[in-house]
Design a protein that fits this description.
2 copies of one chain form a homodimer.
Chain A: E1 10-13, E2 17-21, E3 31-35, H1 47-68, E4 72-77, E5 86-92, H2 115-130
Antiparallel strand pairs in A: 1-2, 2-3, 3-5, 4-5
Helix pairs in contact in A: 1-2
């Protein structure tokens, strides 16, 4: 999937998928988990792939929940713009501006991270993934 | 999870989860798959439960894609309002009013089904689930 997500936002390789921090960090920790092989729908995968993929999703979600002390995690596989399996894994924090709503409805200016912030955040998430 | 989703909108029992048609059918086929036992996050499940749950999600999604000739399926586990594992499984059709956007951002008046429409839709989905 080329230039998106950004290579310098790569968090970790999860085997059959790769996790990247979203460039827009308005929701702190918003992560995208991209399947390495091309498929558009869950039902196009083999059962074993689905099992390994949901293990990767759960593992990333647990790491993010720890890293950001999330109140709730959101897990979304949409593909309306890019029909390639990728998950949006979004920690919802105590400071969330709309805790009862899907993140998508919260209009906001994108919040990219400066280089030092980005490195610190990637490092913190990687630590929590290893724990 | 009590009165929600509505018992008369029940589609099928998938073993560890139950599928219900959403009361609001503005997006035709919007389905909610509710885990029977209580848990709030994917990473609270055992790996075997996660595997069986994602099999149920994929099975319902395949049935809905067939029943509604979906262009794309959306799969979402949020729990921001009801922190109990339930999936929104949403067929996105050729007639979609905002095909590139998450369904949540599409403001609309709720579209409940009349009794005969409801029975026809439940029947059609059950047929596709069995196929």
């Amino acid at each position: 999937v080329g230039q998106w997500p950004r290579a310098d936002h790569r968090i970790a390789d999860l085997g059959l998928a790769v996790a990247y921090l979203s460039e827009d960090q308005f929701f702190p920790g918003w992560t995208i988990l991209v399947l390495k092989r091309h498929a558009t729908e869950l039902f196009q995968l083999e059962p074993d792939e689905r099992a390994r993929l949901i293990e990767a999703v759960a593992s990333v979600a647990r790491g993010l929940a720890d890293a950001f002390e999330a109140v709730k995690m959101n897990y979304e596989l949409l593909g309306n713009q890019i029909p390639h399996i990728h998950w949006h894994i979004v920690p919802r924090l105590g400071s969330d501006p709309a805790p009862r709503a899907p993140a998508w409805v919260v209009q906001h200016a994108p919040r990219p991270l400066a280089a030092a912030e980005l490195e610190a955040r990637l490092g913190r998430i990687r630590e929590c993934l290893r724990a």
